[in-house]
Design a protein that fits this description.
Helix content: 55-70%
Number of helices: 18
Distance between the termini: 16 Å
Number of strands: 3
Bound molecules: coenzyme A
Largest sheet: 3 strands, antiparallel
Shape: globular
Structural class: mainly alpha
Radius of gyration: 23 Å
Length: 401
């Protein structure tokens, strides 16, 4: 075959942005991830102010969907509405009950959200107004799906949300079956509001790609869940805890006083890096310095570990942070300390990515609605690097290469 046939001249000059790095693919006013200055803004509000002053996660959901912070009265009405939408159709619960209990919660979530589409009262209406109603229902129902699956797996009865309590409190209640302490509710609230949105991250992009075909909101959210599930995205937090458990298992000594004495952490990281693996919960496509969410979760994980008398877990993670910084010059991202916070809240590690989804659903819905409101089909091109004009042989003349 001639060289002319193997390479297209037009294609030669095409620049490929692998991983779409630095490509601006949409305009948004929902959130801004300022990688240069390590800041995140939701609708113009700095994440640090939000973490400090927010009353509850519902306030942030309201902000993302309406563009403004709610008044006391607006929040009360909105929260009541959101909690009232948490009920999941019994058919979907039955479907979860027949799923193998060993499947990963993100498999369940992807399938159950897709199934919810069929039972939604607005199933056949994809107008903006109906999509808003369906979006709010999904924000409310996803936590119910996740907690119910946990209860089903553990042969426990499924619990209904308590309309008097907020989302954070209800998530903990529907998991564990008792009224959670205020401190844990606040911790869950912080976890939810810090994960709510993050610019054009991979799962949000996936949601917008699906929405850009004018597909329905349940389809867009199903795409997003499948994308969040991956270990380079929302699946990282679960692997962080696996790593920390492996390090803890290496060390049987008691009474270590200084974090520098945790030698096994360095040994573990050296082996991991030598094998060419990544350290889960570290590095970020946009933040090359501190992830501002990690700052809040680090502090919270320290408080929770102290409260539970599990200083060792915090010390090991702190030591790990120092070692990865020294060896790779990279910082922890949101998933590193979120794993420790979730562990302290009694969430089993395979549910961490699903808890992430319980919060990120609010950002996905805001982005899907934004995409519907000013839509252009998202359809990039690729640089073709294959062959041209190959001689087509009839099947009887083909020989195995
Ligand atoms: N562990 C070890 N090295 C890492 C790393 C990690 N977690 N993250 C990045 N690096 C290194 C890369 O090996 C590369 O080093 P090199 O230049 O010597 O080859 C350098 O940092 C740049 O990495 P790159 O792959 O270009 O960054 P990216 O923008 O594509 O990756 C992530 C971003 C998030 C995919 C990546 O940091 C990662 O895999 N992290 C672990 C998974 C994780 O925590 N995901 C949650 C993200 S919020």
């Amino acid at each position: 075959m001639s060289e002319e046939n193997t390479i297209s001249k037009d294609n030669n000059s095409t620049i490929v942005f692998r991983g779409l790095e630095d490509v601006v693919a949409a305009e948004t006013d929902i959130s801004f991830v300022d990688g240069e200055n390590s800041q995140i803004y939701y609708k113009g509000y700095n994440i640090h102010d939000i973490s400090e002053h927010t009353v509850s996660y519902a306030e942030i959901v309201y902000l993302l969907l309406n563009g403004e912070l709610p008044t006391k009265q607006e929040l009360k009405v909105f929260r009541r509405k959101m909690i009232s939408e948490m009920r999941v159709p019994t058919q979907v619960i039955k479907m979860m009950e027949i799923m193998p209990p060993s499947i990963h919660p993100m498999h369940m979530l992807r399938t159950a959200v897709s199934a919810l589409a069929s039972f939604d009262p607005d199933a056949n209406d994809n107008s903006i107004e109906a999509s808003k109603r369906k979006g709010l229902r999904l924000i409310a129902q996803i936590p119910t799906l996740v907690a119910s699956f946990y209860r089903i797996r553990n042969n426990k009865n499924i619990l209904s949300p308590d309309p008097k309590n907020n989302m954070a409190s209800n998530i903990l209640y529907m998991f564990h079956g008792d009224i959670p302490d205020e401190k844990f509710v606040r911790a869950m609230d912080l976890l939810l509001l810090l994960h709510a949105d993050h610019g054009l991250n991979a799962s949000t992009f996936a949601a917008r790609v699906t929405a850009s075909t004018r597909s329905d909101i349940h389809s867009a959210v199903t795409s997003a869940i499948g994308t969040l599930k991956g270990p380079l995205h929302g699946g990282a937090n679960e692997r962080v805890m696996r790593m920390l458990n492996e390090i803890i298992d290496m060390d049987k000594r008691e009474n270590i006083k200084k974090i520098e004495e945790y030698d096994e952490v360095e040994e573990y990281i050296d082996t991991l890096l030598a094998q060419g693996h990544r350290v889960m919960g570290f590095g970020h496509r946009v933040f090359k310095k501190e992830d501002p969410r990690a700052r809040h979760l680090r502090k919270l994980s320290e408080e929770l570990c102290a409260m539970f008398g599990n200083k060792k877990l915090y010390n090991i993670s702190h030591r790990l942070e120092n070692i990865v910084m020294k060896k790779k010059g990279i910082y922890p991202n949101v998933d590193f300390y979120s794993a420790i916070v979730q562990h302290a809240l009694g969430i089993p590690k395979e549910f961490y990515p699903a808890i992430f989804a319980c919060s990120r659903i609010s950002g996905w819905v805001a982005h899907i609605l934004e995409q519907y409101n000013d839509n252009r089909l998202i359809r990039p091109t690729s640089k073709y690097i294959g062959l041209y004009n190959r001689e087509f042989l009839p099947i009887e003349k083909r020989r195995k290469a």
